[in-house]
Write a structure and sequence with these properties.
With 127 residues, this protein is mainly α. The chain contains five helices and two strands. It folds into two domains: 66 residues, Orthogonal Bundle (Arc Repressor Mutant, subunit A), CATH 1.10.10.10; 44 residues.
């Protein structure tokens, strides 16, 4: 997993978001064992307490579970993963819509941009 942190939010919340994205995208498979706290903290370049706080939050959200002697694992619940994916998608759409509104682009303009982008990506732009 690649770690990139910025000043936009506390590091532990950025870790939560990164692991959540890895789970929602399938980069981390259901039931997969996560590295230990110290190992993940070293890899991310953060304090182990920060990593522990992030993993505790992921447990609270149901995306990760701990087995006392075996470590932490990614949830095997398709429903929980789907919910996380949906929440992340909704947040992304909301940020996108806010940015477009700031640019003065209305919903019709957004739809035109999306259609044009899709056509360009699919090679259907008629060029």
């Amino acid at each position: 997993m690649e770690w990139r942190f910025d000043g936009s939010a506390p590091i532990y919340t950025q870790i939560v978001d990164a692991v959540k994205l890895a789970i929602a995208s399938g980069e981390l498979a259901p039931g997969e064992r996560l590295p230990g706290v110290r190992e993940m903290a070293l890899e991310a370049g953060v304090n182990p307490n920060t990593m522990q706080r992030a993993l505790a939050e992921l447990e609270r959200q149901g995306l990760v579970f701990a087995q006392r002697t075996s470590g932490r694992f990614v949830t095997e619940s398709d429903r929980t993963v789907a919910r996380a994916r949906r929440e992340m998608a909704e947040e992304t759409v909301q940020k996108f819509m806010e940015a477009m509104t700031r640019l003065g682009i209305d919903k019709e303009g957004i739809i035109k941009l999306l259609v044009a982008e899709k056509e360009e990506k699919n090679g259907d732009s008629g060029k």
